[in-house]
Amino acid sequence: MSYLADVGALARKDLRLELRARDTLPAMLLFVVSTLVVFHFTLPQNASRLAAFGLLWVALIFTALLGLTRCFAAEREQDVLDGLVLAPSDRSAIWLGKAIAMLAFLVAAEVVALPAFALFFDPGIDGRTLAGVALADLGICTVGTLLAGMAAASRARELLLPLLFLPLAIPIVIGGVGASVNGGARYVEFLVLYDAIFAIISWASFEYVVTE
Amino acid sequence: MIRVQGVEKRYGEKRVLRGLDLELERGGFLVVTGPNGSGKTTLLRLVVGLAQPTAGQVEVAVPRGRIGFLAHEPLVYRELTALENLDLYGRLYRVPERRERIGMLLERFRLWEARRERVSSFSRGMLQRLALCRAFLHQPDLYVLDEPFTALDADGAALLDRELAELRPRATFLVATHAASRFAPLATAQVAIGT
After folding, report:
1. What is the ipTM of this complex?
2. Which residue in A63, A62, A54, A56 sits closest to A36, CA to CA?
3. For a Cys staple, B31 with which of A20, A98, B38, B190, CB 3.0–4.6 Å?
4. Intervals of chain B under pLDDT 50
């Protein structure tokens, strides 16, 4: 129970910081909406659903990346991560708290992005698409938070994070587009498997990311 | 309580510590001095477990949660208030009667009036007082303090003097400083490194 209490305290802290500083979510919202607007005007009228969903997933992945680059910004200031690492709580709680806060930001961005996408492209968003987006969000946040933690320790963090994250996000895009367009249950299952594997890896390895 | 044997620490090509040995018994008060860049801060980071030695051994017979570490930086969130920062650490360190303890520390370090202000509006001296509150919050068994008097005015320094004198019989201290004379009444040993 104390583990969950730690995770809750850390996630609440991140949400509170965002409410105060407002430097992640507004940028994510602006980016995803403006990307969809640009795609709306560049995609031909008779473009296929496949193309439209492909662009949606590109927009979502890069929106998430934008949020992830800010993920450990507050901890980098004044070396707060050292303070969290020294606390007696399990260090994976730091990762899980961050991943939950990141998930909240991403879902908030999608609450705006998905209706905008439906309005611009009228692709027919069904339950499978929403399930694909939800599962992809979990994958993005579990892997992305771990990689953001790794990159935070580096001087070239802005360069390092996309280099680490984008290759690992390719399966998420494949699963997401597959679930959206083909409607195949196997793509949803693929995303479930991806989430489970990377959640376990991230949970188990975060301690080594934040310690020397 | 702390045993450092033949410790060497390198950052790339740069060697910060070389063959360092020291020992600190439970209840002791060890003052570490040395010029800038001599490795005082690195030594403290090795002791609290934030860094690993390149060679040699660091043994600390205190669990992580029983160490109070005062670093160069205050290790607090700028966009949270003093109260919110201490509450977060109090939860993570499972401080019993957390609110009372936080209130008492804020009163003692004269931050009570500023408790609901964001840390970003604090002066350097107020930040140092808050950092001391954070390090002392869970009543640790081992205090590892890096230049604890930095940025404190005369009032703040007198306050910290009183606090250290009060805590001295109940805990073990490892302090890095340029002003060793300040700790003379409390210290049981002194080590100069990098000289």
Report:
1. 0.92
2. A56
3. B190
4. none
